[in-house]
Design brief:
This protein is mainly beta and 66 residues long. It has one helix and three strands; from the N terminus they run αβββ. A three-stranded mixed sheet has the order 1-3-2, with no helix packed on it. A hairpin with a 5-residue loop joins strand 2 and strand 3. The relative contact order is 0.32.
């Protein structure tokens, strides 16, 4: 997410929200151990992190099962 934001010149903040849509059949996992993944444990999720200027970056992960 941060790489795309830097490349596009996008900034975080409470008035911005980013939706990350995956391609057909591409899932995601909420954890690094791949034990909580799309299509079996959830259909999507939302969260936030702070950017380099301490602005909140609010996002939603939207995997596309098809």
């Amino acid at each position: 997410m941060q790489r795309a934001m830097t490349a596009k010149g996008w900034t975080g903040g409470l008035n911005h929200m980013f939706y990350v849509f995956t391609s057909f059949g591409e899932g995601s996992c909420f954890d690094t151990g791949s034990s909580s993944c799309a299509f079996t444990d959830y259909c999507g999720y939302h969260s936030f992190f702070s950017d380099s200027h301490n602005n909140p970056v609010i996002y939603a992960n939207m995997p596309y099962k098809g």
